[in-house]
Description:
Belongs to the aspartokinase family. It catalyses: L-aspartate + ATP = 4-phospho-L-aspartate + ADP. Keywords: Amino-acid biosynthesis, ATP-binding, Kinase, Nucleotide-binding, Transferase. It is an enzyme of class 2 (transferase). It is a single chain. This protein is an alpha/beta fold and 408 residues long. The protein folds into two domains: 249 residues, Carbamate kinase; 146 residues, VC0802-like, CATH 3.30.2130. It contains ten helices and 17 strands. The strands form three sheets. It has an eight-stranded mixed β-sheet, with helices on both faces. Strands 11, 12, 13, 14, 15, 16 and 17 form a seven-stranded antiparallel β-sheet that branches. Strand 1, helix 1 and strand 2 form a beta-alpha-beta unit. Helix 7 packs across helix 8 and helix 9 packs across helix 10. It is elongated and about 80 Å long. The two termini are 41 Å apart.
Amino acid sequence: MGIVVAKFGGTSVGSGERIYKAANSVVNEYMQGNQVVVVVSAINKTTDESIKLVNESIGELVTEKQLAGILSMGEMQSVRIMAATIESLGVKAEFIDPFSEKWPVITDSNYLNAKIDKKETQKRVTKYIKKLLNQGIIPVVCGFLGCDVDGSVTTLGRGGSDVSAFLIGHCLGADEVVIVTDVKGVMSTDPRKLNTARKLDKITVEEMIDLANYGAQVLHPNALRYKDPNIKAKIISFEYGDLRVQGTDIIGPAHEEYDVITITKCDDKLSVLAVVGENLMNQQCIIAQITQKVCENKLNIYGISTGESSITLFFKEDEAIKAHEKLHDLVIGGDTLSSISLGQKIAMISVVSHDFIDTPGIIASITKPLHENEINIVELSSSQTAVVVFVDWNDGDKAYDLIKETLQ
């Protein structure tokens, strides 16, 4: 007997037919011998309609506490309908909302973007949800919602229902979390933009987070903070009405603590190469020409950045000399590039955290201690989850220590 947490998004319960199909898939899973916890979002568009009504009737005068209570009504309706539908199919179910004594998700009092009290939530999941499962009852839990210590309703912010599912799965030590949504899985690209898009059989947590951070809306990265490495997870479409259907498996993460900041200093000494030319930003295919030359000679680029009149590349010190020679051939063989220089020895420090996307000023936090200690930054590159700093090799250890002391 395993434990399965099934989360149904708003579209998946957007009509009576879909609610019945969802409930039937849960009952079928239960009849296979598994314990099932159901997490349900508000019925499609309910939340948007509630926000519209609030804007039209109250506007900016609504308090955060009031708004959280209003927004919670969609989920509280969904769990009641879902639980009743499951029971109509012959299996006992119990809806659980924030006003229930068995409510598991405890948070602080930040009503619209609450922080979860993991320790207290773990206690309540074990005490109440696990007990219901052992009694043969299917708990149907409101997604997106929490409750503070005073009993007031809170909301978990963006991706809240997915957070609820992975959080409960984590606390139960579930075998699998199934996210039921309106897509067949994670696609190679947006099928609305390219009809050649295909479904991926699997994707890592890290890849899923990067996709989400850059616009994919299948699963919010906040939810993956609670994805345990040993708990299976997948995204499937509601249209099949079957929790066993193949979708896209989410693999990982590589470590237990998702929300840690990882700071590493590359062991290799790097060298910087600068290629210069006039108006490079508007020169077509110049990056392709450079990377093709690097590829042909089986050299690895550790970093690359572009400017108005220069392109900077970082190589391992023992490969930089060869890169210098081969890229010089490119310089003298055409009219676009005018010169190339082999510069100082470089240390590379990488700072990675999936919290960075929601952390304003993170680059300032990294660069400020370097500035205060007169360490010059040769180059800096960033994405939504990583910042990479290049400094003089002789400053590398000190820069690493300063960044680590500041962020950890």
